[in-house]
Design goal:
The chain is mostly beta strands. The chain has one helix spanning 10-14; strands at residues 5-7, 19-22, 39-40, 49-52, 55-59, 65-70, 85-90, 98-106, 108-114, 122-131, 136-137, 145-147, 157-161, 168-177, 188-197. The protein has one domain: Jelly Rolls (Sandwich). The relative contact order is 0.27.
């Protein structure tokens, strides 16, 4: 079984058979009504679980806060595409913020990653997967880089396609600002629409 193949653009995963897109404001518990902007996801009310047809995607909220937004000038003005969904995570800087669980495991997954700041600094994206055999994988040999800004469609994409015999059980990601500032311990990270493939079809 080989290591997962890194995908650095959403087109890479969109071309896979069976690719689906999860928009965070389209929650199964609120059919036909997008979640209101700024709504927190909570374990106690089940909003941290996106139960889709044949696929469950869970968000680990043990040490973090996660809120749903939409990318726009008047809402979450970041470097995602205009109108895309945003899931913003906030926690102590030492916590690996984004942690998603997939049941059943997925064959591929990816998302754009950014932060709430717009100060023009650069950041690196940490991206790690837990596979069905218990091993961990960091598909990118060199971290994807981004810039804190509101320039649309510039947030870096991180994704991976796994071996069909060893699919993806969990996904972790975070961002690390670069530079010399003392405050370079970023405590927020946001992800955009989630692209995933439950099972590859050839």
């Amino acid at each position: 079984m080989g290591d997962p193949e890194a995908m650095s653009s959403k087109q890479d995963i969109e071309h896979l058979s069976g690719c689906q897109v999860l928009k965070w404001f389209d929650h199964p518990l609120s059919p036909g009504r997008p979640l209101p902007s700024g709504m927190p996801l909570e374990e106690w009310d089940g909003t941290n679980i996106y139960s889709l047809k044949g696929q469950s995607i869970g968000i680990d909220l043990a040490d973090i806060k996660a809120k749903v937004y939409r990318c726009s000038r008047n809402d979450f003005d970041a470097s995602f595409s205009e109108g895309s969904s945003v899931l913003n995570f906030e926690a102590d800087p030492l916590v690996n913020l984004v942690h998603l669980r997939f049941n059943p495991p997925v064959q591929a997954v990816g998302t754009h990653v950014a932060g709430a700041k717009r100060d023009g600094r650069e950041y690196k994206v940490s991206f790690m997967l837990l596979l069905a055999d218990g091993s961990k994988s960091t598909p990118f040999a060199v971290s994807q880089k981004g810039t804190f800004s509101s320039n649309r469609d510039t947030a870096p994409f991180v994704g991976a396609k796994a071996d069909t015999a060893n699919p993806i059980v969990e996904m972790y990601c975070d961002i690390y600002p670069t530079g010399n500032r003392d405050e370079d311990t970023e405590a927020d990270v946001a992800i955009g629409d989630l692209y995933f493939v439950s099972s590859l079809q050839g």
